[in-house]
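Lecture notes, part 5. Sequence design as translation. It can be helpful to think of inverse folding as translation between two languages: the language of shapes and the language of residues. The source text, in structure tokens, appears below.
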């Protein structure tokens, strides 16, 4: 099935002055999309609005899932979505298995389904040997992979990952990037990041966000045609739009 997520003129203000999103419109279909921009560009605000963790402005636009408004679909939409937030808010006294069972219950998965899915998903994120260990002893990369596993529970059609490689070393970033790429055949996957290398080899399209505005989007070849100068790289385009790279 080809899924469709359509955003129509999404707006969000914080207070009277801060315009975090401004008339943001885009249409997503199956595949991986990178939301690229520096911290504060509006990426997390957009993701939290799509996931219904944050409300847009009153009359602040529409979000449609396969042609129907998500505010009408409510739980029917949320049940088809997996979300990995940026913050690693894990219960460190819990084992990974206990945490994932907890998330499965929040997603209204029955016990039998959860017992079947959790070992399979944990295998995908290469944490099978740590399933019954307490998460307080996990490295940053292991915690990120637990959160990705939680997002995958219930086999969602829409997966949203907010800075999934934040704070990880290059080797861990490659593991997560390859893992996400393998999932993308029949799903919409949206990845927020400020690290170009995290998405340049796996993204179907990339969206550049600056001060709440969608300033450019397209496939990698399309975007590279817009690079000024001799060095045609996505990092060069990032520099062109934002002035500096973030580590």
């Amino acid at each position: 099935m080809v899924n469709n997520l359509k955003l129509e003129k999404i707006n969000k203000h914080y207070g009277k002055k801060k315009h975090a999103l401004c008339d943001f419109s885009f249409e997503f279909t199956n595949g991986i999309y990178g939301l690229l921009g520096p911290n504060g560009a509006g990426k997390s605000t957009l993701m939290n609005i799509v996931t219904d963790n944050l409300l847009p402005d009153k009359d602040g636009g529409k979000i449609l899932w396969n042609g129907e408004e998500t505010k009408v679909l409510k739980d029917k939409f949320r049940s088809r979505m997996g979300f990995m937030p940026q913050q690693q808010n894990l219960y460190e006294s819990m084992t990974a298995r206990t945490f994932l069972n907890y998330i499965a219950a929040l997603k209204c998965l029955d016990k039998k389904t959860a017992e079947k899915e959790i070992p399979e998903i944990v295998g995908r994120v290469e944490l099978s040997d740590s399933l019954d260990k307490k998460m307080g002893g996990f490295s940053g990369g292991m915690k990120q992979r637990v959160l990705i596993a939680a997002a995958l529970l219930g086999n969602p059609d829409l997966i949203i990952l907010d800075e999934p490689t934040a704070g990880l070393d290059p080797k861990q970033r490659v593991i997560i990037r390859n893992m996400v790429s393998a999932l993308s055949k029949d799903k919409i996957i949206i990845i927020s990041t400020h690290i170009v290398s995290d998405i340049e080899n796996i993204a179907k399209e990339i969206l550049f966000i600056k001060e709440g505005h969608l300033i450019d989007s397209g496939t990698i070849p399309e975007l590279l045609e817009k690079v000024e100068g001799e060095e045609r790289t996505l990092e060069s385009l990032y520099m062109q739009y934002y002035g500096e790279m973030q580590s």
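The translated text above is only one of many valid answers, since several sequences can fold into similar shapes. The first helix runs from residue 43 to 50.
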